[in-house]
Amino acid sequence: NLYSSEAITAQDLTALTFYKDGAKVFVSKASTSATDWVLTFPLERKVDYNDFSKFLSWVASMRVSQYVEENAADLKVYGLDTPKYVFEYTLGGKNYVLKLGIQKDSKYYAQMEGNPAVFTLDASTLNFVDMPILDLIENFVYIPTIYDVEKLVINMDGRTDTLLINANKEDTTKDSYSINGKKVEGDDKQTLFKRYYQAAIAIAGDKIDLEAKPSGTAVISLTYTLKQANANGEKNMTVDLIPTPDGYGFCLMMNGKYTGMVMGNRQLDKEEMGLRQTYKNLMDALK
Questions:
Q1: Does the predicted model carry a pTM greater than 0.85?
Q2: How far apart are CA 275 and CA 287, in angstroms?
């Protein structure tokens, strides 16, 4: 154990920066709680804790497999002069830098900054290090529950849909919905209405493009009106889709700010959760 206590857990971590082959992959920090983390580089985004926690759990629980050399004179022998991976982190209020070099016989050579000893770590426990950034973040642009929204306006394909929502969490018999002034009645039709809403909040990035410079008019715009203002005092939240120059799809904007994520055109026409398809299904049922 390289730490001062056996009681250290992932919840004692408050910051983590990860490098691969000398390049900074991400910078992250704990937000409002030990299980609520955000990336601050290469984009600002809340993490998907299920996958991101693999980094945190490993950092907190990793143990030396074997000490190799107490005072290494030549770090190049172990690949530690130019490490493959570097973890910089704050754990239990202390800052650490852990370097991983050459992998040999299912072990990585490693060294903790400030300690000249070289040791090995089990490589099989590090199968998460090449995970793409998209898998580490919440890629949904904005996902309010239907119970928190009183109105959703969707501008798409040259029309405007106004969805009025009164969803009751305690008693679904009190639910009431309408679209463009037409009341949606009956369980089947209300289910299709909810799927249209779910397709709206399912707008998500399928790749990251940090070089994109979104410009022009949004071809799809979604404006949510919340029942209660959020912690920032905002009651209206807007998601805009601006076409990419290459025709792939859309740059995803949140309240006028580029999220760093892009969504392909095909997402709109998915059979189950595509925004266009769920609209068509609802309209066919209301005829």
A1: yes
A2: 19
